[in-house]
Amino acid sequence: MSDFYENSWVRFAPDPLLTDWIAHALPAARAAVTAPENAAWLRCGGTWFVGVNALANAADGRVGNGPKLAGKAMDFISNELNLPGIALDRGQISICYPGYPQRSEAESDAAFRFRRDRDAAHLDGLRAEGPERRRHLREHHGFVLGIPMVEADGDAAPLVVWEGSHEIVREAFSKLFADLPAEEWGGLDVTDAYQAARKKVFETCRRVKVSAKPGEAYLVHRLAIHGVAPWGNKANAGPDGRMIVYFRPELENPADWLTAP
Questions:
Q1: Fewest CB within a 10 Å sphere: which of 55, 130, 162, 252?
Q2: What's the whole-number mean pLDDT along residues 87-109?
Q3: Looking at residue 195, which CATH number applies to its domain?
């Protein structure tokens, strides 16, 4: 618990319940990657399958006739985050391949440099809108749960987290949203405050690479700045690439996004 709230993330040891879930979910994840309707998710010169909501799971995590998502990570979410029975979103099947990142056709030079040099660092839930791509808070996630699905080297485009960043983000948004009801937060342009907070995070927080093996999982604080590191020069993975399923379910009470621990 202290690791999670001090470092913005925590990793869970191998769990047979999670291993069983992966055995049932992996075939569906592989099928989703090759499905024609998901072809547009392959970006960055063919080195990243974004796969948002591409896993056809139920609200309890079941895929097909498989088991519900259970184990140490889900127990932590239920007991320590006080989110028992939270309805899971459809999982993101995030896959990176050797050479990530290459530049996408729709990506500007500045955006590509930021992806390459700053791990595309971001805060989940913010949407870039309009011709000027101004940021608005549109999603109120309870957490980010990452489940590695296949074996891959630790330097194969791992998750990156800036430790302690969630409290810098919380302070910035608490000031920005002061005296404003949660239902009105989305109407506020948060771009400048967000970029200032992220700059402070880069200057003051430790950047760590987070990887895990199938059967393990990691949980990232909903307010943490995080991203994906480039594929290491000597990193290896199988034909599936570096495949991770992420769950980011919405909180029932949007105000908890800012005020909950």
A1: 130
A2: 95
A3: 2.60.120
pTM: 0.97
Domain that holds residue 227: 2-251
List, as one string, the DSSP characters of 189-256. Answer: --HHHHHHHHHHHHHHSPEEEE---BTBEEEE-TT--EEEPPBPTT--B-TT-EEEEEE-PBPSSTTH
Does residue 256 sit within a domain? Answer: no
Q: For 28-40, write each residue's pLDDT tens digit.
A: 999 999 999 999 9
The predicted structure's pLDDT at residue 106? 82
SS3 125: coil
Going from the C-alpha of 20 to that of each of 51, 66, 69, the distances in angstroms are: 22, 8, 9
Instruction: Give the separation between CA 247 and CA 245, rounded to whole angstroms.
Output: 7
Give residue 5's pLDDT: 97
Report yes or no on 260 lying in a domain.
no
Q: Give me the phi and psi of 214, to 5 degrees please.
A: -55, 135
Q: Could you check whether the bond before residue 27 is cis, i.e. omega within 30 degrees of 0?
A: no
The answer to whether residue 116 sits within a structural domain is: yes
Model pLDDT for residues 49-66, shown as the tens digit of each residue: 999 999 999 999 999 999
Angle in degrees, CA 99, 226, 248, rounded to 5? 105
Sort strands 226-228 and 134-137 into parallel, antiparallel or unpaired: unpaired
Question: pLDDT-derived band of residue 105, with 50, 70 and 90 as boundaries?
Answer: confident
* Domain assignment of residue 259, yes or no: no
| Total domain count, the chain | 1
